[in-house]
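Hi U.,

Before I forget, here's the chain from the pilot set. I'm dumping it here mostly so it's searchable later in email.
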Amino acid sequence: MTRSLPHQWLIEQQRLGHALCLVLDSEHEHPTRQTLLKNSRPDQHLSVYGQTLVADLADAGPFVFTFDRPGDEHINELLDRPDSHWGWFASLPKGELPTLVEHWRERLVIGERPHQALYRFHDNRVLSRALKYLSVEDYPAYLGPAISVCYWQGNHWSSTHNPAPGTYPVPDSPLWLQVPVTPQQAMQVRLVNARRFLLAEHVQAFAALAEQQDPEAWLRVTLDQAEAWHWQASEQLEFLLTQRLQAPAQALAPYWQVRSAESPDEHFERVRLMAAFWQGDTPA
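Structure:
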């Protein structure tokens, strides 16, 4: 069964005298969170975003629960659907729930103003990628007081043991923030940013396109073209999106194609000037 490995892990961690802990994505698991809250003592759960700079988002932020029964029906329900990315498990020394939550609060906000973001430590995919990238000696600063963690790794369950659980300061340059982005992740980020740009700047044209064809498929084809040309700067992507949106079903004019020995920047500047000329934006 899918749940056999994590269930064995839960039983073993409890046998060793450790507290069992669930890190839950509250935003997408609100019914589960509410059920767990109703069935937990006050000392068995904490909101990670509470008492932080993002306390206003606490209701949508991750919650951490400790629980006593590995075979709890609500835990089993989560184990039966690992692909929904609800979070992950950890084992802790008894009474260390506040320590774990404080550990992640200190690592929550990343980047500098005005480009700050929230680190999605509660996402099993984020945890899995970080642990795959980090060396064993880097685990303690990342996992903190967690003795062991158990998580869905995309197509199977996995567990990782922390060689030195404890309290650690946040490194000046945390290695877990340097995890290489996969091509799929990079494309997803570009898709999100492209969609935001079009909805903010060209919402009517984008809506008209959506009436004629699948907007997601069109976005992917357009971004694939940008990648083939090595147009990755925001100015280049926005130019291509805007130009293609004017006639989304038409083939590109011949002057759009790359010339021999032309760099991506040279190619972009030539096409930009040619497009402006043919659209009457520059003197003939």
